[in-house]
Amino acid sequence: MTEELPKRRRGGARSRLELKKFVIKMYAIVDIASQQFKVEAGMDIFVNRLKAKNGESVEFDKVLLVQDGEAVKVGTPYVEGALVKATVLDDDAKAKKVLVFKKIRRKGFQTLNGHRQKLTKIHIDAIA
Asked: Which residue range is the domain that position 56 belongs to?
């Protein structure tokens, strides 16, 4: 559970004791399908298309950084023994439509193309 930061004093600054009470969640920076994501347990994120089906659990071992409270582990390039476990929620999600419009002035040439990127929605179960 996280505590909210107390309201600022008249001068606007917070004392160090007030800032120490703020709890830092555990998070990791993980490489999924050649993209880096900052993830926490319980998050739902959209990633580029994975081969896993709905309901399957997937594990990502390309973890670049893990922070647990004040302890930070940085990998070279990956943290040894670190693992992010996730479950596939939707393997057929699509991003918003991207429109590509081309025009050549004074020639009467116009084309409008569009596409929707296919994505996979995953739920982060745990960071180990």
From this structure: 16-127
Q: Which residues contact 32 (CB under 8 A, 6 or more apart)?
A: 47, 48, 60, 62
Contact between 125 and 41 under an 8 Å Cβ cutoff? The reply is yes
Tokens of 21: 């009470």
* Tokens found for residue 38: 């900052």
Residue 6 domain-assigned?
no
Predicted structure pTM score: 0.74
Q: Is residue 59 part of a domain?
A: yes
Q: How many domains does the chain have?
A: 1
Q: Write the pLDDT tens digit of every residue in 35-78.
A: 999 999 999 999 999 999 999 999 999 999 999 988 999 999 99
